[in-house]
Amino acid sequence: MDFLTSLEVSGSGLYAQRKRMDIIASNLANIETTRTKGGGPYRRKMVLMSTKPSESFDRVLNAQVEGVKIDGVVEDKSPSRWSTIQATLMRMRMETSINRIST
Q: Does residue 102 belong to any structural domain of this protein?
């Protein structure tokens, strides 16, 4: 691997990690967002990364590392923690209201 190829690989990795940090910053900035334009809570985003495909058959034969590419950004499909917190708060308020009525 020559000097410029190693810089290209390193540069692609740094670029991919910078994009990942941008997505993490967006997730942190929206951690308390309860309603988006779509009407639901904010869903964290994740970056999908993979290796860059080889540009020539010679590189495939030599099996050299090509770098990192970003395949896309996807939303987390797991249940929202915010809805669980809201349900817990609602239940606590109802219990408090029932206790006030019964006393």
A: no
Q: Which domain holds residue 38?
A: 3-77
Residue environment code for 29-57, b if the CB has 16+ CB neighbours within 10 A, otherwise e: eeeeeeeeeeeebbbbeebeeeeeeeeee
Cα→Cα distances 103→25, 92, 96, 98, 100, Å: 48, 17, 11, 9, 5
Q: What is the pLDDT of residues 40-74, one digit of tens each?
A: 888 889 999 887 765 655 655 565 567 788 888 98
Structure tokens given for 15 = 């670029």
Residue 50 near residue 71, CB atoms below 8 Å: yes
